[in-house]
Design goal:
435 residues; alpha/beta; Rossmann fold; GMP Synthetase, Chain A, domain 3; nine-stranded mixed beta sheet; 12 helices; binds 5'-O-[hydroxy(phenylacetyl)phosphoryl]adenosine
């Protein structure tokens, strides 16, 4: 079993943890009310004051925060400190509108580095490791977050940044990298390239993968582990809240431990906004408890998951967040049926002959939604005789239809045809007219 970075906070008895959360919540509410006009207005509208919150149960009285609040206050309007106290700025671009700008004080950077050190340690990384970071260095929080966390642990960091897969592989070979950091889809791109050029992953020193930034299935984890011969771990976060470091796998890989002393988590029904009982699947809502520059109250992440409060054999007492099903705004509605790309991925990865690359195309014919899934198949299937290929295709369509509850047309494409991504993968092309 791996070490625990911050035993005091990761293994706190729940009662103590809740007391700490309440104290930190009250401080956060005061800071936000005093320094952020948007929050002062929201509180006034609801007729409440920070001192009205005496217990964690009263959290539900507080207003939600959404990405729109951040956009409306672009770029610095939600900051709770003057810019001179901000030592770092990152931003995350959404699919529409302006980017969301986030800031960190010196203390925020320290908190962030320690949170990343927590999940890296939980994944088995130590100061003896050589950590290769393939996230793009820039406004994205992924690279700098993992970089500072790895340095905090005392590991050796190789900031290769994103792109140039051949160079990444050469560095991995020459510098004897032991830990690979990036998106899970990029890990598969690396595995594919190694296969293509005949490099045996067993000859590398890699042993752990820290993957995050996008949803990925258990089937994809198995695929990465068996092809790169590493332990593939998941970690979750979002720029608005801090970046990577919100939650991460321990060695049991049965849900990601969420840093509850730093973030208060709720699960709500995204339609009614009502808080759901423990264990329910719904939208994750997070309140920051220690952030100085950008405190956020009940931030709607749009990520669909559930929280598991049962004890984990690793000894950490923090709640475990299940792999996300995707984002509520990524959910496709096909002929009225809710479909998550992750459900399609689970089906495809379990079928022999499907390669781990796929694209979902949604279109409309008249008033009818059409769901098409383009999948890369191995050469022997792609070049197989028509009859056998037809049978394979029908089998995949049947499996998809029975899992999703709605019909899907499958198109087999030859290896290498689906576009590869160095950062977050783009799985869905929605051609339907919006609005
Ligand atoms: O992706 C932060 C991050 C970087 C996390 C590197 C982990 C590793 P954003 O660009 O703001 O921040 O995107 C946040 O990405 O709301 C989720 O929808 C998705 N996401 C991030 N990590 C995971 C994960 C970073 N492990 C959005 N599983 C989030 C599923 C994830 N989705």
């Amino acid at each position: 079993m791996s070490r625990i970075w911050d035993v005091e906070h990761e293994c706190m008895p729940r009662e103590e943890l809740e007391q700490l959360q309440l104290e930190r919540l009250q401080a956060t509410l005061n800071r936000a009310y005093k320094n952020v006009t948007c929050y002062r207005n929201k509180f006034k509208e609801l007729g409440i004051l920070p001192e009205d919150i005496h217990s964690l149960a009263e959290l539900t009285k507080l207003p939600f925060t959404t990405k729109d609040d951040l956009r409306l206050n672009y770029p610095y309007g939600m900051f709770a400190v003057p810019l001179r106290e901000v030592v770092r700025i990152h931003a995350s671009s959404g699919t529409t509108g302006k980017a969301t700008v986030v800031g960190y004080t010196k203390n925020d950077i320290k908190t962030w580095s320690n949170l990343v050190a927590r999940f890296m340690t939980a994944a088995g990384v130590t100061h003896d490791d050589v950590v290769q970071i393939t996230f793009g260095y820039g406004l994205f929080t992924g690279a700098f977050g993992l970089h500072y966390g790895a340095e905090t642990i005392g590991a050796s960091v190789i900031p290769t940044s994103s792109g140039n897969t051949d160079k990444q592989i050469a560095i991995m070979q020459d510098y004897r990298s032991t830990v690979l950091v990036g998106t899970p889809s990029y890990a598969l791109t690396i595995a594919d390239r190694m296969e293509q050029v005949g490099i045996d992953p067993k000859t590398l020193a890699l042993r752990v993968g820290l993957f995050g930034g996008e949803p990925w299935s258990e089937a994809m984890r198995r695929e990465i582990e068996s092809r790169l011969f590493i332990s593939a771990t998941d970690n979750y976060g979002l720029s608005e809240i801090i970046g990577p470091g919100v939650a991460g796998d321990c060695s049991y890989k049965d849900g990601m431990h969420l840093a509850e002393d730093t973030f208060l988590a709720e699960i709500i029904d995204p339609e009614s906004c009502r808080v759901l009982p423990p264990g329910s699947v719904g939208e994750l809502v997070l309140t920051t408890l220690t952030k100085e520059a950008l405190p956020l109250i009940r931030y709607r992440t749009r990520d669909i998951t559930s929280l598991d409060y049962s004890p984990c054999p690793c000894g950490r007492t923090t709640v475990r967040m299940k792999k996300t099903m995707g984002r509520s705004d990524d959910m496709l509605i096909i002929k009225g049926v809710n479909v998550f790309p992750s459900q399609i991925e689970e089906v495809l990865f379990a079928i022999e002959g499907c390669r781990p690359h796929y694209q979902i195309v949604v279109d409309k014919k008249g008033a009818m939604d059409l769901l098409e899934v383009d999948i890369e198949v191995t050469e022997n299937i792609f070049f197989d005789e028509m009859k056998r290929q037809r049978r394979f295709l029908e089998m995949v369509e049947k499996k998809l239809t029975s899992t999703l509850g709605v019909g899907a047309t499958v198109r087999l494409v030859e290896p290498g045809r689906i576009p590869r991504h160095e950062g977050k993968a783009v799985r869905v092309v929605d051609k339907r007219q919006k609005g």
